[in-house]
Every structure is written in structure tokens, then in C-alpha cells.
Design goal:
- The strands form 2 sheets. A 3-stranded antiparallel sheet has the order 3-4-5.
- It has one domain.
- A hairpin with a 5-residue loop joins β3 and β4.
- By secondary structure, it is mainly alpha-helical.
């Protein structure tokens, strides 16, 4: 154990030394926390139950509404879009300064974004076909495939906003916010069609994305605007929930008449503003924390495989759930109805196994994000600027000329 600790300390110090001095480590920390928040949130509020025969999707939020504040902590997508807008706007500005075309810049970003998706789709196409051929109930297969594919909507929206970065960089957040408010008024106040809400899938997430672009231009150099975002967003979200008829949960709840997330509502946008304000206020403390080599190395490693973690976390949960069926069809916290404190306690005990399964998925599929391995001793660029990977290990390299702010992960 002491030897392992010494090796980790040496690696952390090497990563710290290899990091370009002008890199904003707080940006990486915010992205890592946003991804891990989504993963942990899904593991806590998504359950596969055998109560109806086959495996079906259930949520503790549908049975225990008092757990709604859990969604306030783990629904961190607004922070992800904030960081994405910030990084994309700076990256595009740097690309233009280097003389790169918009097409070249966009192709590089989208290529890095979607490369790992092919592995997920291929594996699950084979698995789904195998289950159907093996006689598994189609409803069960549909439930599992839907859980795997549901996070992909986020990538499609992020890709569309990335493509719109030159426009978003000049757009005021008030424009998409007004669109969201108008759509909600039409749907909920004037009896408009439900399909109109899907306009908010783009408009709703464009709000934090444009805030990120404004951040890249120095709009939040002082704390005042961030404080206003936090206070104003929190007050608006609370008012909309208490008096506007919006649900308290900031994630979708099976069976609920209104979802704040699918598609985004004005309450979700207001809540996202508060999250963005808090994230911007935490830049200073995060920067100081990331000055410690051990903390920074962990964040760098998470960002190195951020898309792999995001794409495979549901598969990891489902694998543990499926293996649990070998023991019993009624394992607490895995297959039972999520309607009690006992289920919550049992679920928390399963989280380490979910993490172990995700680690196996990471080991098997990370090369689709980081690129194929090269022969030992061969260096190749890694997704974290300032580092290379040798035989799959992160080692320091001389900083490249690429600006430190242009993170390759979306």
C-alpha cells in the first residue's frame, strides 16, 4: 500500500509539473464535477424493478416526493453547458487566430465528441439482438436500450450548440430565456400543443451555453454578476415551483404530468442560472484546491475519460442489476420497488459495485476516446493538453502550442 501511494504521489506531481501554467484548472474541475454529478444522480434516481414481471424503469422520486432536493444536487447539466460554451468560444477564437477554418475546428471538436459513441451503439445493438433472439421480453429490452440511449440526446444538443458557437458567442442569454418563457406560456397558460415544448431543448440549454461564451469574454471577471445569477436564479426557481405549478424535481419523474427536464422548462432554466452563478463563484476556491498535485491529477484523469464515464455508467448499473438476478429476482436496492428508506440504504450499498463495474467498462472502452494504444515507448497526444500517454499510462510531456483553455473533451 505504501508503495502504491508513493507511485500515485509521483504520478500526481508529474502531472502537476507538466500542466501548462496558464491552464485554468477550475474549468476542468467544474467539468469533472458536472459529469460525476450526472452519473451519481442517475444511479440514485434510476431503478430497474422486477415488480411487473420483466425489468421496468422506476424512480424513487415517483414514490417519495420528499427526495426532490436530491435532484437539485445531482442535476448538473447547466454547469456542463456553461463550461462547454466557455471552452468552445475560447477554442474557436484561438482557431481563428491560428488561421484555422470553421469547418476544421468543428470537425475536430465533433470527432472527439462522437468517437466513443460508436462503441456503445455497436455493443448494445448486439446485446439487444441477442436478448430478443434468446426470448427476453421485448418490454425489458426496450427498457434497457432506452436507458442506454437516453443520455445521447445530450450529446446531440451539445453538438448542435457547438456548431452554433460563432452565433452563441454574440448572443445574449436573454434571447433564449425569452424563448423558453414564451414556449412555457403557450404550453401551460394558453393550451398550446405539447410538441412545442421541444423548442426548449435547444433554447433551454443555450442559456448556460451563452453564459459560458460571455464568461470567455470576461463578463464574470468580478463576483457581482455571478452573485446576481445565483440569487436571481434561486429566487425565480423557488417562485416558479411554489406558485407557478412547476414540479420541485429538476429531473423527469415517471408518471408525472410535467417534467422540468424533458423538455427543459422555465423552472429548470432558472435553476440552471443559480447553478451557473454558484459555479462561477467557486472558481477561486477550486483554483486553490487544484493547486494541490493530488487533487489536480484526479481531475485531469477524470477529464481524460469523461465521455467514456458518461456513456457507460448506465451500462455499468444495468450489468450489476442483471448479475443480481442470478442471486434473486428481489434483491433490495436492485430489483425492489424504490419506495422506502430501506431501498435508499440498500442502494447506497450498491454504489461501490456500480463504480467497480464502470471501472471495468472504462478499462475496456477508454481507447475509443483516447485512441488506440501504441507500442511501448511510443508517445501520442492525449486528450489532456500538456500530457502524453505511453502504453496507456499518463506521463508528462512538454506543453504544446495549443492554448491551455481549449479542452478537447466536450
Amino acid at each position: 500500500m505504501r508503495r502504491l501511494h508513493a507511485r500515485w504521489t509521483a504520478l500526481a506531481e508529474a502531472v502537476d509539473r507538466a500542466t501548462p501554467p496558464d491552464r485554468d484548472r477550475a474549468v476542468d474541475a467544474l467539468r469533472a464535477f458536472a459529469i460525476l454529478g450526472v452519473v451519481l444522480g442517475h444511479w440514485l434516481v434510476t431503478s430497474l424493478t422486477t415488480a411487473n414481471g420483466g425489468l421496468s424503469n422506476a424512480s424513487p422520486l415517483a414514490h417519495m416526493s420528499r427526495l426532490a432536493p436530491v435532484s437539485w444536487v445531482f442535476q448538473t447539466l447547466a454547469v456542463f453547458f456553461l463550461v462547454g460554451g466557455h471552452v468552445a468560444a475560447r477554442g474557436y477564437a484561438s482557431a481563428r487566430a491560428r488561421g484555422d477554418s470553421y469547418r476544421t475546428w468543428l470537425g475536430q471538436r465533433l470527432g472527439r465528441l462522437f468517437r466513443p459513441v460508436a462503441a456503445v451503439l455497436t455493443l448494445w445493438a448486439v446485446v439487444a439482438a441477442g436478448m430478443l433472439i434468446g426470448g427476453v421480453e421485448p418490454s425489458t429490452v426496450q427498457t434497457l436500450v432506452k436507458l442506454v440511449l437516453s443520455p445521447l440526446w445530450f450529446l446531440l444538443v451539445f453538438a448542435a450548440l457547438t456548431a452554433a458557437t460563432p452565433l452563441a458567442a454574440r448572443l445574449s442569454p436573454l434571447v433564449p430565456m425569452t424563448v423558453v418563457a414564451g414556449v412555457d406560456l403557450w404550453r401551460f397558460g394558453l393550451g398550446g400543443p405539447e410538441w412545442a415544448g421541444w423548442v426548449n431543448v435547444a433554447a433551454g440549454w443555450l442559456v448556460p451555453y451563452t453564459l459560458g461564451a460571455a464568461w470567455s469574454r470576461g463578463a464574470f471577471a468580478r463576483r457581482g454578476p455571478a452573485v446576481l445569477l445565483l440569487a436571481g436564479g434561486a429566487i425565480a426557481a423557488a417562485a416558479l415551483v411554489l406558485w407557478g405549478g412547476y414540479p420541485a424535481s429538476m429531473v423527469g419523474v415517471p408518471g408525472a404530468p410535467i417534467s422540468n427536464l424533458n423538455p427543459p422548462t422555465l423552472a429548470a432554466v432558472a435553476f440552471g442560472l443559480a447553478q451557473c452563478g454558484l459555479a462561477l463563484l467557486l472558481r477561486g476556491p477550486l483554483a486553490r484546491a487544484m493547486a494541490r498535485p493530488a487533487a489536480w491529477a484526479k481531475v485531469a484523469l477524470v477529464n481524460l475519460s469523461a465521455m467514456t464515464v458518461f456513456l457507460w455508467h448506465q451500462t455499468a448499473m444495468m450489468a450489476v442489476t442483471a448479475l443480481g438476478l442470478l442471486l434473486s429476482a428481489d434483491v433490495p436496492g436492485l430489483h425492489t420497488v424504490p419506495d422506502s428508506a430501506e431501498w435508499i440504504a440498500a442502494r447506497l450499498l450498491w454504489l461501490p459495485l456500480f463504480t467497480a463495474a464502470l471501472t471495468l467498462c472504462w478499462a475496456a472502452f477508454r481507447t475509443y476516446e483516447q485512441g488506440p494504444r501504441r507500442p511501448r515507448g511510443t508517445l501520442r497526444p492525449s486528450p489532456v493538453h500538456g500530457f502524453h500517454t505511453t502504453a496507456g499510462c499518463l506521463v508528462p510531456a512538454r506543453p504544446t502550442a495549443v492554448p491551455a483553455q481549449e479542452i478537447t473533451h466536450a
